[in-house]
Amino acid sequence: MSARHRRLLTTTVAVVGAAALVTGCTGNTPEATSSAGGNDAASSNDETGDTVVIGFSAPAADHGWMAQITAAAQAEADRYEDIELRVAEGTNDVSAQIAQVETFINDGVDAIVLLPFDGDAMTPIALEAMQAGIPVINVDREFSDPNAARVTVLGDNYGMGISAGQYVCSQLADKPDAVVAEVAGIDSLPLTQERSQGFSDALSECGLDVDNRVAAEFTVESGEEVTANLLQAAPQIDAIWNHDDDQGIGVLAAITNAGRDEFFMVGGAGSANAMRSIQAGDSVLQATVIYPASQAADGVRLARLLAQDKGLSDLTDVEVPRQITLSAPVVTKDNVDSYIDSAFES
Amino acid sequence: MSTPTTQAPPAADAAPRRGTASGFLSGPAGRNAGLVIALVILCVVGIATAGDRFASTDNLLTILRLAAVTGVVSVGMTFVIIGGGIDLSVGALVALSSVWATTLATQALAEDTHWILMAGTALLVGGVAGLVNGVVIAYGKLVAFIATLAMLAAARGLAEIIANRRTQIVQDQDFLRFFSGSPLGVPTLVWIFALVAVLGWVLLNRTTFGRRTFAVGGNAEAARLAGIRVQRHTVALYVLSGVTCGIAAVMLMARTTTGSSTHGTLLELDAIAAVVIGGTLLIGGRGTIVGTVLGVLIFTALSNVFTLNNLSSSAQAVAKGVIIVAAVLLQQRVAAGRRQRRSPKAVPPTAAEGGPAGASPGVPAP
């Protein structure tokens, strides 16, 4: 089931990407998956073509999500006989990552998939690669110059907030004075601010707001600590959104410890742990919002298409689009089965 | 002060200062009173702004439970700092111990036998890492700051390798049940914290080991001439700190239901801050367990009051910084005043001859 299913999913991503160019994001509902039905179109692109060499560089796999990024990219490359993926050792050292890209340029690879540790710092070397005629696929963390990448594949942090907010709204539609709490990630990061902004924007549309907000540090320990205090601050809660499923293990531990279950919780990022919890339905965790760890895998596929002069077969346009923003779907008990296989282990 | 080993003449010049730390009510009472006042002010602010949400048994127990992990580590840190050293590796040791105790192999072994094995593993790992710290510092003659800084980096790196940077879930339900229980209505973690604090107080104030710790930290050379085996004692202090890290790792595993290489991030700074505002001199020779416990409680209560009022963590960090500076400034005033009253000619502690225990060039005592 998985190969066929993954193809369907990728087609969906393509469709969503197209929609993103025009309208922003659409929901990744099961209907969309089945109606996409672009098997024929996709398979003509899947036929083995000229072998392409793709250079891949990403930060060190120091948490579950980042580990899955590299693993998924590698797995995607293994599925195609005509892809030779050169994976550089993951590093959080900008100068080491620049050196990796320089090596790719010297080797004359056909395309480079780059998840920069720091988008700004990697922009000049990406520009250099583009000028050398090597298409660069920028994943997740954006360059400061749009010319530095041929295609940019992004997750949608603001969209995560929106999705979480809309889900909370849908559950609390009839309670105008419901208490909503938020356990954010590291507050100084733009991605946290975007998630929080999206959440409060979506909540305000149904007349709700964030009553209690605490910020953890994406670690289990900090999640437990801030949540223990949060639960004291709010004696009665209706919904909690936690930005990150890694820290979510700690958040759930604190909730269990306090013996609270009058509310439901929505997670973020989409770890396998969280999805198993949702599947089992044995905790307050009812849903999670995905921040796809398949971005780099999509980058690899797009790199192959670019190098082989192919377009996205589900689009009328001849060329691969410039920017693809992935959807941030809500995973609940109803659709968890479709997502759990591609989830990352935290 | 009456142990046979410390009666040699050179120990005498450490006596006036040790006198201030000999009882927990007589000497440092003034400093501790200041801390109690600070804690009371925090509580008043908490009650005024959050009312019943602050002044409830549940909230009190939450504060104590959150203070427990930092508290246990801080007790170990107090010994090291009084002994003239510093241990920057505590956070990393907590991570390493928690990861080692929750590997699949350890958990499988614990499942066949008893969860106590997991706890034992954590304590052992912490103790051995502390031993390495101590040996490198005492016999390798490395400065404590550098040696434990190296351990900080290495231990967390090793933890990442063992855990493969994943979060390891604790599967043993008996383990979780034991540590999440509340005997007599007080969480197990708080009992452990209380036990460690009381044992620490007894060890520091009622045993030869404690008196030697003050002597070594106050003046290592004098302590050596007095017949104290300074190097062996230094090693023991770091092992003690390592074991408290192991205990803290077990508590953290219970609190979060996981072992992870991210556990205890920046815990060393929290512990040092608590020890310092608790009135322990960073150069060694003086300090109290009671002050340290109060220091930990102040920081935990602070973050609780801030969260109850829905204030940002940034504002909290600013308040924390202000408290540290204010507390230390106040203590210096108090300490200076007392010194002048006591003996105008007394050498200020900062001028105490002989480096900290870690840097002492002493030869092994006979």
| CATH second-level architecture of the largest domain in chain A | 3-Layer(aba) Sandwich
CATH superfamily of the largest domain in chain A: Response regulator
Number of strands of chain B: 2
- Largest protein-protein interface: A-B, 37 and 33 residues
Overall mean pLDDT of chain B stands at 83
Structural class of chain B: mainly alpha
Strand order of the largest sheet of chain B: 1-2
Specify the helix fraction band of chain B: 55-70%
Calculate the terminal CA-CA distance of chain B, rounded to whole Å. 21 Å
Largest sheet of chain B: 2 strands, antiparallel
User: What proportion of the residues of chain B form beta strands (DSSP E)?
Assistant: under 5%
Question: Percent of residues of chain A in beta strands?
Answer: 15-25%
Mean pLDDT of chain A, to the nearest integer, reads: 85
Q: Output the helix-strand order of chain B.
A: HHHHHHHEHHHHHEHHH
Global outline of chain B? globular
Structural class of chain A: alpha/beta
Report the top-level CATH class of the largest domain in chain A: Alpha Beta
What letter string, H or E per element, gives the SSE order of chain A? Answer: HHHEHEHEHEEHEHEHEHEHEHEEH
Number of strands of chain A: 12
Description:
With 346 residues, chain A is of the alpha/beta class. Chain A has helices spanning 2-22, 30-36, 39-46, 64-79, 94-107, 119-131, 157-171, 190-205, 220-233, 245-258, 272-280, 295-307, 336-339; strands at residues 52-57, 83-87, 111-114, 136-139, 151-154, 180-184, 210-215, 239-242, 264-269, 285-290, 323-325, 330-331. Chain A has 13 helices and twelve strands. Chain A has a six-stranded parallel beta sheet with strand order 2-1-3-4-5-11, with helices on both faces. In chain A, strand 9, helix 11 and strand 10 form a beta-alpha-beta unit. With 366 residues, chain B is mostly helical. In chain B, helix 4 (90-101) crosses helix 12 (230-256). Residues 1-26 and 344-366 of chain B have low confidence and may be disordered. Chains A and B meet through strand 7, helix 9 and helix 10 of A and helix 3, helix 12 and helix 14 of B.
